[in-house]
Amino acid sequence: MPSGSRLDFDDLPDSPEEACGVFGILAPNEDVAKLAYFGLFALQHRGQESAGITTFKLGERDSHTYKDMGLVSQVFDEKILSQLSGQFAIGHTRYSTTGSSKINNAQPIVVPTRLGDFALAHNGNLVNTTELRAELLARGHVLESTSDSEGIAFAVAEAVNEGKDWIAGIIAAMHRCQGAFSLVMGTPQGIAAVRDGSGLRPLVIGQIPDSGSYVLASETCGLDIIGADFLRDVEPGELVWLDATGISSHRWLARPAPKLCVFEMIYFARPDSIMHHDSLYSYRKRLGHLLAEEAAVEADLVIGVPDSGIPAAIGFSQTSGIPYAEGLIKNRYVGRTFIQPTQAMRESGIRMKLNPLRDVLQDKRIVVIDDSIVRGTTSRKMVQALREAGAREVHMRISSPPVTHPCFYGIDTDSQDHLIAATKSVSAIAEIIGVDTLAYLSRESMLKATNADPSHFCTACFTGDYPIAIPDKLKHSKLILEKQHHD
Question: From the candidates 20, 177, 407, 458, which is the catalytic residue?
Answer without folding.
Answer: 20
